[in-house]
Design goal:
single chain; 126 residues; OB fold (Dihydrolipoamide Acetyltransferase, E2P); 9 strands; 35% strand; Single_hybrid_motif; GCV_H_sub
Length: 126
């Protein structure tokens, strides 16, 4: 399994990559493996401020639907259009082309409280 060290992680299996006062968020390699084949991603919070640990959308696999939780308080700016047409990108490239949303961070320092790659790897016992 892949755990890029430049990312921060949550116990709910989301990752976040900070880019200035914005960030890109997706689900981890571990999460996509657990879910199986992703068939649909539903995000209806674009333009809204969502609090840390609150649901910003759902991800649907062949056999289940799971909530997606925002790692930090932020405003959802955009959804990755590529996953609308090809949701399987979340499976094949979860840290690259399969990213889910871009957000504007309320407080970039909040990211510091999230898990490092090593901590997340220990969390999932990988």
């Amino acid at each position: 399994m892949n755990f890029p060290s430049e990312l921060k992680y949550t116990k709910d299996h989301e990752w976040i990559r900070v880019e200035g006062d914005e960030a890109v968020i997706g689900i981890t390699d571990f999460a996509q493996r657990e879910l199986g084949d992703i068939v649909f991603v539903d995000i209806n919070t674009v333009g809204e401020e969502v609090a840390a640990n609150e649901v910003f959308g759902t991800i649907e696999a062949v056999k289940t639907v799971s909530d997606l939780f925002l790692p930090v308080t932020a405003t959802v700016l955009e959804v990755n259009d590529a996953i609308d047409a090809s949701p399987e990108l979340v499976n094949t490239d979860p840290y690259g082309e399969g990213w889910i949303i871009r957000v504007k961070l309320n407080n970039p320092a909040d990211v510091d409280a999230l898990l490092s790659a090593e901590q997340y790897q220990s969390e999932v016992n990988a």
